[in-house]
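Why do we care about 3D structure at all? Because function follows from shape, and shape follows, mostly, from sequence. That is the central idea of this module. The next example makes it concrete: a single protein chain, its amino acid sequence, and then its structure expressed as C-alpha cells.
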Amino acid sequence: MESEAESAVYCRRHPDTETGLLCGRCGDPICPRCLVQTPVGARCRDCAQFRRPPVYQLGPRHYALAYGAALGTGAAMGVAWWFVGIDAFGLFLAVLAGAGMGWAMFRVVDWAAAGKRGPAIQAAAALGLVVAYLLRNTLDFDALLVSGDLSGLTIVSVAIVVAVTQIR
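And the structure:
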C-alpha cells in the first residue's frame, strides 16, 4: 500500500502546495490560487485563455475611422440642422429628429468601424452628435451652449441615447 506522502499531488505552478484539484482540460494539478473558474469548469491559467470577443478587439485603424466618420458626419448634420431649422417644429418632432440623427450616426460609425463595438466607438458617435449641436449653435451666431434651448438639447440627447444604445 502507498504511503500518504507518495500519493500527495502538488500544484504545477506552486510545488510546495498540496492540492486535489485538476484542470478540467489538461488534467494538470492546480491549487486554488491558480484556479480559473470558466463556464465549463475549473481550468489552469494556460487552458482558460480568456480573450475578448473579436467584435470588441479594436486597432488604431478602427479608432481613426470611427472618429473621423463621426466628426465628418457630425459636421454635416450640424449644417443640415441649422439649414432646415428643426427646432421650429416642436418637441415631438424634436424627439423624432433626434432618433433619426442618432440612428444615422450609428449607421455611419458602425460602417466606418467595420462593425466593431465598445465604449470608444460609443464615445465617437456621441462626440459626433455633440459636434452637430455645437456647429448648429455656431451657425446661428449663438453661444456654443444656449440656455433654454429645450428643443436642441432634446434632439442631441435623444440622438446620443439612440446611437450609444445601438452600438452597445
